[in-house]
Design brief:
The strands form two sheets. This protein has a five-stranded mixed β-sheet with strand order 3-2-5-6-8, with no helix packed on it. A hairpin with an 8-residue loop joins strand 2 (340-347) and strand 3. The chain has 17 helices and eight strands. The two termini are 81 Å apart. The protein folds into three domains: 2-119, no CATH class; 145-310, Serine Threonine Protein Phosphatase 5, Tetratricopeptide repeat (Alpha Horseshoe), CATH 1.25.40.10; 317-434, Immunoglobulin-like (Sandwich), CATH 2.60.40. By secondary structure, the protein is α/β, with parallel strands linked by helices. Helix 7 packs antiparallel against helix 8, helix 8 (168-180) packs antiparallel against helix 9 and helix 11 packs antiparallel against helix 12 (238-250).
Length: 435
């Protein structure tokens, strides 16, 4: 920026100096050679006399007399100027004036940057020019984000959202700032505004955490309902599994916490930064239950081995439910290939929480499905522990776990675990069929 400014000023100074040099040259010529200047004046006066004679305003005798008078005055002025020139020193020529711009430009280029740096060293923040200081400052952000700054940020975001109430990102930022301030009620409200603009399951889980903090760490009520809703829509949602395990652990339900975390461990890659922390959480839950510690990387392999044992396979076979889901021709033009298809089992009475759930898309229809304990939402509620269940199918355009207007579906009840060959045909909006 300083270089650009210097170039602009130098060009302007150079152009101005050229014009000034030409004017100074004329002035210098008049000062250094006044005889020439006087001669030019007398020539003009002679020309004026000639014009007057041609126009008839002067006779020949008057013209001749006036010319003689001008000639004598010119000679007298030249004699006086010669005497004055001998007594006065010579003045600088136009060549000297021509060289002055270089001196001015040189001083400008030297003085302005030096003065700017000196002023910045006194009034500015020179540490900001040091990259190492910037890195240290970034790594020590906790010292910079003070409660006062958080309050200023919250105030600024609130004012901005008054003008931009449909800014989903603004509401998310406000929710996180209010959470950092410990204002959990305001944080939950901000996340609620964001979710009204964008149904994001990750934001829903974040709001569930805030609500639990507002309730003093208790996940009872709405926080658990949010977690279960997200897991119903996506049984492998990592953030929901993490939080479900943490909530169960906080409630001293170590067995359930272990189940959620082990399900998450099956999805998390071995090189993920979340893997070591998840392994430590699993080890802690096993320790609380009095179970022997196992190598973190062997946890999923142990679960797979247990599931593949003959006894486990026999239990799955006797409790699993299988069948086929089809769609009537009248609905085939109304259902898009990307619509979400849920196939799940719920208790016949009481809770509507799925016991086992399968999620796919409509392009897979007709679908041959199997529901078993591996698809359980909770280790305390499995098909093996049920006498009868209701098998439901729902086709959702929104992809939401809760039923929405316009969803298509069908349900079959009662169904005993171990039933095979069920035929579930979706004909219209949600309907129930007794078996």
């Amino acid at each position: 920026m300083m270089a650009v400014v210097m170039i602009v000023l130098s060009v302007a100074l150079w152009r101005g100096s050229q014009q000034g040099a030409r004017l100074a040259a004329h002035q210098a010529d008049a000062v250094n050679d006044p005889a020439k200047a006087n001669a030019a004046v007398y020539r003009d006066q002679m020309a004026e006399l000639d014009r007057e004679f041609v126009m008839g305003n002067l006779s020949y005798e008057e013209l001749k007399a006036a010319r003689d008078e001008l000639s004598q005055r010119l000679l007298a002025d030249v004699a006086v100027l010669d005497t004055a020139a001998q007594e006065q020193p010579a003045r600088p020529s136009s060549a000297v004036v021509w060289r002055k711009p270089w001196l001015s430009i040189g001083l400008l280029v030297f003085v302005v940057p030096v003065a700017s740096l000196l002023m910045y060293s006194v009034l500015g923040e020179p540490v900001a020019l040091d990259p190492r200081a910037l890195v240290q400052g970034a790594g020590n952000g906790s010292e910079e984000v003070t409660p006062e700054k958080l309050t200023e940020m919250a105030t600024a975001l609130t004012r901005r959202l008054q003008d931009e109430p449909n800014s989903m990102e603004g509401w998310v930022m406000l929710g996180r700032v209010q959470r950092a301030r410990g204002m959990f009620q305001e944080s939950a409200e901000a996340f609620g505004k964001a979710l009204s603009l964008s149904r994001d399951d990750n934001l829903s889980i974040e709001r569930a955490e805030v609500l639990a903090q507002k309730n003093g760490g208790s996940f009872a009520g709405e926080p658990w309902a949010i977690i279960q809703r997200v897991l119903t829509a996506d049984p492998h949602h990592l953030n929901a599994l993490f939080l479900a395990g943490s909530a169960s652990y906080a409630e001293l339900n170590f067995n359930t916490a272990l189940r959620y975390w082990e399900r998450a461990r099956e999805v998390v890659p071995a090189d993920s930064p979340d893997a070591p922390e998840l392994d430590r959480a699993i080890a802690e839950a096993r320790n609380k239950m009095g179970l022997p510690a196992i190598p973190p990387r062997a946890a999923s392999a142990t679960a797979d081995a247990a599931a593949s044992s003959p006894a486990a396979k026999a239990a799955l076979a006797t409790s699993s439910i299988s069948g086929r889901v089809t769609l009537v021709k009248e609905l085939q033009g109304l259902v898009a290939p990307t619509d979400t298809v849920f196939v799940y089992a719920t208790p016949v009475t009481g809770s509507r929480m799925p016991i086992a759930i399968l999620r796919t898309t409509a392009d897979k229809l007709p679908l041959d499905f199997v529901l078993d304990d591996s698809m359980a939402m909770s280790p305390s509620a499995k098909l093996t522990g049920m006498d009868e269940v209701t098998v439901r199918v729902r086709i959702s355009k929104s992809g939401q776990a809760t039923a929405q207007a316009g969803d298509y579906g069908v349900s079959l009840t009662p169904v005993k675990p171990g039933s095979k060959g069920l035929n579930l045909m979706v004909r219209d909006t949600l309907q129930s069929t007794a078996q």
